[in-house]
């Protein structure tokens, strides 16, 4: 007989739990700086104009047939140009194995499964801290995990020396998960010079970099600039893996559209790797969803829509950068003796505030402000209407 009765409920997801608690709160002052999704200055979700236009074109013309197993060829081609560069010789030489993936999460998972199937003895090095789901993904793919130093709590910046030591001390040929830009949850990225040193050391050690690029364009406002780390590794002649997501930079969160790519030694290897990635996807979901892929390829293939998109990404990034300045200035105006420089030094969607779990609890219980207990503030939830209230509350619990 079936015996499901012994099954305990799974632990609550810490991030989704925050939203639940926020929704249940009836205070008019409540603020949600937990979610990792962009909001406009009125706290409302945003659908980009370029996306609306692409959807009009889809509604007028296109069918809903299955995509090929590897996903939309057009979407993949445009994604590779964004990550590897418009004129990348690797694209021309067909050295990149790439498939459409179920957004960034699905791209990471497919890669983890690939790693397990073809390099069963390999491990993955993951930064401390990281997006919590990275641990779940590689755990469920049964790839052993190691960690490497990344964040330096005292400086609220990068622990570069320890990071480099960990790279040097890892066995030759190790797999490393790197956040390509706008590191989640810390908002701390290596500088260009530091990336060059990291890339150099990877070369010495023969490590394989797997870039999770969930925020291309969200860090600086310019997707080209945000691809800098990847381009440095490419210049240095590495083979790389890359997970791309259109959740944030096109606001396509629920459409689940992304791309997994693996730069191979030659075109023959790329054909083999792509076919194996498809083989992994086939028994899981057969083929990826069509709507988001159409939206992305329509936007990126039309120069006018693409430039509209670039303007809109920049607009989102700029609003966040503006809110960083406003939050810091408000804290300083209130006379906080603490340094809040890291709010404006960090980039991307998140600010790793340095607040303790107890301080976060006070923000929630006394001020109806919701966020994860690691002190991560989603800057996307900060607006001109709530920034002063937020600064005041942070000041109260940190003084
Ligand atoms: N990687 C990182 C670092 C992220 O922060 C996220 C989104 N929270 C993702 C991947 C994946 O997001 P999605 O699956 O929605 O593209």
Automatic annotation (TrEMBL):
GO terms for biological process: amino acid metabolic process. GO terms for cellular component: mitochondrion. InterPro entries: Aminotransferase_I/II_large (IPR004839), Asp_trans (IPR000796), NHTrfase_class1_PyrdxlP-BS (IPR004838), PyrdxlP-dep_Trfase (IPR015424), PyrdxlP-dep_Trfase_major (IPR015421), PyrdxlP-dep_Trfase_small (IPR015422). Keywords: Aminotransferase, Pyridoxal phosphate, Transferase. It catalyses: L-aspartate + 2-oxoglutarate = oxaloacetate + L-glutamate. Gene3D superfamilies: Aspartate Aminotransferase, domain 1, Type I PLP-dependent aspartate aminotransferase-like (Major domain). Belongs to the class-I pyridoxal-phosphate-dependent aminotransferase family. In eukaryotes there are cytoplasmic, mitochondrial and chloroplastic isozymes. Homodimer. This is Aspartate aminotransferase.
